[in-house]
Amino acid sequence: MFYEINTKQAPVPIGPYVQGVDLGKIVIVSGQIPINPITGIIDKEIYKQTLQTLDNVKSIIEAAELHVKNIFKTTVFLKNINDIELVNSAYELFFIENKANFPARSCIEVSKLPKDVNIEIEAMAIRY
């Protein structure tokens, strides 16, 4: 059995899925895109899109009463793999500012993402 995670601090799902699920020991965050949950705005710059996407992931993790340091795996989907340096810069800043170790990560280039954004990130976190 699992519990659905829902928070107003992250964007409302744009399809038939939940923001995340809490399995007890493991929390799985659905792929997040860079929608500002308050304004609905999507920034055009990949650096800012990356930070917003990670903030959305963080909000869902915190709704499960965990912290960024509990994230052990992420998957990053990029529309353009040439953006990886800017993505890595924002990604590194996010984890350092949240005093967390870098999780394991996969990064995949894809042809298209929802709402024509440049990045989507899904994550898994562990409850120690």
Brief descriptors of the model:
6-stranded mixed sheet; RidA_CS; 2 helices; 128 residues; Reactive intermediate/imine deaminase; single chain; 60s Ribosomal Protein L30, Chain: A; globular; alpha+beta; 27% strand; RutC-like_sf
Structure, described:
The chain has helices at residues 46-63, 84-97; strands at residues 3-5, 20-22, 26-32, 71-78, 104-109, 119-126. It is α+β, with helices and mostly antiparallel strands and 128 residues long. The protein has a single domain, classed as 60s Ribosomal Protein L30, Chain: A (2-Layer Sandwich), CATH 3.30.1330.
Strand order in the sheet with the most strands: 1-2-3-6-4-5
Estimated radius of gyration: 14 Å
How many domains make up the 3D coordinates? Answer: 1
**SS elements, strand count:** 6
Strand content: 25-35%
**Name of the CATH first level:** Alpha Beta
The fourth-level CATH homologous superfamily is RutC-like
Q: What is the terminal separation in angstroms?
A: 19 Å
| Fraction in helix | 25-40%
Please, what is the oligomeric state? single chain
Q: How many helical stretches?
A: 2
Major β-sheet, in short? Answer: 6 strands, mixed
CATH 2nd-level architecture? 2-Layer Sandwich
Mean pLDDT metric: 97
Pfam family, one: Ribonuc_L-PSP
GO molecular function, one term: deaminase activity
Protein name: Reactive intermediate/imine deaminase
Family: Belongs to the RutC family.
